[in-house]
């Protein structure tokens, strides 16, 4: 059975790498190959979910790369594989041959494969590797149309934001090693000794909140909308945006090891669900509305993780994956057909393309939390866990549920209204005016999931899910809680539907919400500009001070070398030449008496003897 687990990981990663590297060479076969691999992965996911295998191999001294499918990861691998199949089937029908389909389908398989490693990893090093691959492939997919500068810039913003938060996992790994957790097993992280436990928890929390686009990192998900719609569907539903929330659900014992982590996580999730829900209400771009709603809906899962509601959070994650994947694919189909994603321009879109409209309507009603659809039931599980943690958390979560009904109904109101006589289509590209027939099956499957996956929160299946994920003692919602949340959602949806004149553009008071709370501006003002300013200052210091000192030292060395050269040429060399000339002259003088005549030598000896005698007498 462990062989199937390795296949679950290696098949999408290997096939994805081959397709991505070959690119245009497999342009015709790439859709078929991509869908076939995704279907095979789904079969493997079902098999390992039933068998619950584990596997590991040595990685470093005292550390192993471990994989295991338990109850929580069994649910997740099926969810990831199922959504991947639906998204790739849709992409095969919609993605034209003019695109680099080999690279696209390869990157999508790599993306999904990295998420499968993330949900099955049992050790921090392997989790980090998958975390990094997921971030890198998301950057490549968001900037898939990289020849357009604004899309490449959006990919950079999303990548750098998540990478900044990802540093938390490196902090956690280093602190765990310092705290004595040499194996870096995820289940052993709470055993970090001394003060090192707090950096471990803080690093994990920051990385998870960044990956799932929770406050204050939410703005990167807005920029991710520059990628193709199938990328948005996969990224927002079952992979990257869900990864951080899943990690918090997985590491519940680590959060419980400190007295501050659970309240921080719970309140961050609740605040994100409410604040980003308001941001979604202010949007007039359909994909931006769905992106903000992703932050808000994942916020409910984060709220569940901080409120010890693992089963409720898992059900919310699964139901949201099907709902949001279907909504994004429908938005992508309209963008291709009508050339716009602006809500005022999409009036009548659901009537023009009934299959897409029907699936979008089911997804929007589920996203609104209306009974009996999926997110109504799963949301109640989350709110119940929040209620047992804090009345304030429950109140904020209930308000966020009301806001969810507002933004979902707003989107549905526009697409179901009759189109005007002169529809304002093609605001962003030239529409094809057709929706391929091959896009219907995945839309219908996802709409069915959005409608029915709430059964995971019904009394019988909910008890089964609690046993599966290892949380049998979690509370169930009481009848008054179910009725209250249903009444709040229905009331908010009805108020929006019968509002006499929905605002097309946000008023001045809503500009802060339309601009995603100015989070990106704040990041630029508080992080980017100071860092760049510090970098410029350090560069100037390096150029003027360090390089100046080096240049002055070089100039001084050259001057000293010139002086030494002059001393050498005018002093030492002159002295050597003088000594040589003196020696030459002495030699000439010494040769003069050497005549070869004996009587001259005798006379010279007599004179020398006389001079020597005279010197001796004078010295005495």
Number of domains: 3
Contiguous helical run count: 24
Q: Give the assembly state of these chains.
A: single chain
| Sheet with the most strands, sense and barrel status | 2 strands, antiparallel
- Shape call: elongated
Query: What is the share of helical residues?
Result: over 70%
Round the Cα radius of gyration to an integer and report it: 38 Å
**Can you give the mean pLDDT?**
91
Sheet-strand content, in percent, reads: under 5%
How do the helices and strands follow one another from N- to C-terminus? Answer: HHEEHHHHHHHHHHHHHHHHHHHHHH
Overview of this structure, please?
With 620 residues, this protein is an all-alpha fold. It folds into 3 domains: 2-145 and 154-514, no CATH class; 515-550; 591-620. 73% of the residues lie in helices and 2% in strands. It contains 24 helices and 2 strands. It has helices spanning 2-22, 30-51, 71-94, 101-120, 124-142, 149-178, 197-211, 219-223, 229-237, 240-250, 252-256, 261-282, 286-306, 310-338, 349-352, 354-367, 374-389, 391-416, 440-452, 459-469, 479-497, 511-514, 519-591, 598-619; strands at 54-60, 63-68. A two-stranded antiparallel sheet has the order 1-2. Helix 2 packs antiparallel against helix 3. 51% of the residues are buried.
């Amino acid at each position: 059975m462990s062989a199937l687990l390795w296949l679950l990981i290696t098949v999408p990663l290997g096939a994805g790498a081959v397709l991505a590297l070959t690119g245009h060479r497999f342009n015709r076969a790439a859709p078929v190959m991509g869908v076939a691999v995704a279907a095979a992965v789904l079969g493997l996911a079902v098999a390992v979910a039933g068998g619950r295998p584990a596997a590991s191999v040595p990685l470093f001294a005292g550390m192993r790369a471990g994989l295991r499918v338990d109850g929580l990861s069994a649910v997740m691998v099926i969810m990831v594989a199922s959504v991947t199949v639906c998204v790739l089937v849709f992409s095969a029908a919609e993605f034209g041959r003019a695109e680099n389909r080999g690279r696209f389908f390869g990157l999508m398989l790599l993306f999904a494969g990295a998420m499968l490693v993330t949900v099955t990893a049992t050790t921090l090093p392997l989790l980090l590797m998958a975390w990094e691959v997921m971030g890198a492939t998301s950057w490549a997919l968001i900037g898939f149309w990289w020849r357009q500068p604004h899309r490449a810039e959006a990919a950079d913003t999303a990548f750098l934001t998540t990478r900044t938060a990802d540093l938390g996992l490196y902090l956690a790994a280093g602190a765990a090693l310092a705290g004595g957790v040499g194996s870096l097993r995820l289940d052993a992280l709470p055993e970090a000794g001394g003060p090192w436990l707090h950096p471990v928890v803080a690093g994990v929390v920051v990385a998870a909140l960044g990956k799932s686009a929770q406050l204050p990192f939410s703005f990167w998900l807005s920029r991710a909308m520059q990628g193709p719609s199938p990328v948005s569907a996969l990224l927002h539903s079952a992979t990257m945006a869900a990864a951080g929330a899943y990690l918090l659900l997985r590491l519940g014992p680590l959060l419980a090891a400190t007295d501050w982590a659970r309240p921080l996580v719970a309140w961050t999730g609740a605040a994100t669900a409410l604040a980003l829900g308001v941001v979604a209400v202010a949007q007039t771009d359909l994909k931006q509305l769905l992106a903000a709603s992703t932050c808000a809906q994942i916020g409910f899962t984060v709220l569940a993780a901080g409120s010890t509601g693992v089963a409720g959070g898992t059900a919310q994650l699964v139901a949201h994956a099907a709902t949001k994947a279907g909504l994004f694919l429908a938005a992508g189909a309209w963008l291709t057909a009508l050339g716009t994603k602006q809500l005022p321009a999409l009036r009548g879109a659901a009537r023009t393309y009934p299959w897409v409209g029907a699936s979008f309507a089911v997804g929007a009603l589920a996203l609104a939390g209306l009974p009996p659809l999926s997110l109504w039931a799963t949301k109640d599980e989350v709110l119940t866990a929040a209620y047992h943690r804090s009345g304030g958390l429950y109140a904020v979560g209930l308000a966020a549920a009301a806001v969810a009904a507002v933004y979902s109904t707003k989107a549905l109101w526009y697409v179901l209204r009759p189109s005007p006589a002169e529809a304002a289509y093609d605001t962003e590209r030239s529409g094809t005016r057709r929706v391929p027939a091959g896009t219907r099956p995945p839309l219908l499957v996802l709409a069915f999931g959005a409608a029915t996956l709430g059964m995971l929160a019904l009394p019988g299946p909910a008890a089964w899910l609690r046993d599966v994920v290892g949380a049998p003692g979690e509370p169930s919602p009481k009848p008054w809680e179910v009725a209250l949340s249903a009444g709040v959602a229905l009331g908010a949806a009805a108020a929006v539907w019968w509002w006499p004149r929905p605002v097309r553009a946000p008023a001045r008071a809503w500009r802060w919400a339309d601009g995603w709370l100015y989070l990106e501006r704040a990041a630029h003002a508080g992080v980017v500009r100071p860092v760049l300013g510090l970098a410029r200052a350090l560069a100037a210091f390096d150029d003027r001070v360090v390089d100046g000192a080096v240049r002055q030292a070089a100039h001084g060395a050259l001057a000293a070398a010139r002086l030494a050269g002059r001393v050498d040429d005018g002093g030492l060399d002159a002295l050597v030449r003088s000594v040589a000339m003196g020696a030459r002259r002495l030699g000439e003088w010494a040769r003069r008496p050497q005549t070869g005549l004996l009587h001259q030598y005798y006379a010279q000896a007599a004179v020398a003897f006389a001079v020597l005698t005279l010197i001796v007498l004078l010295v005495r």
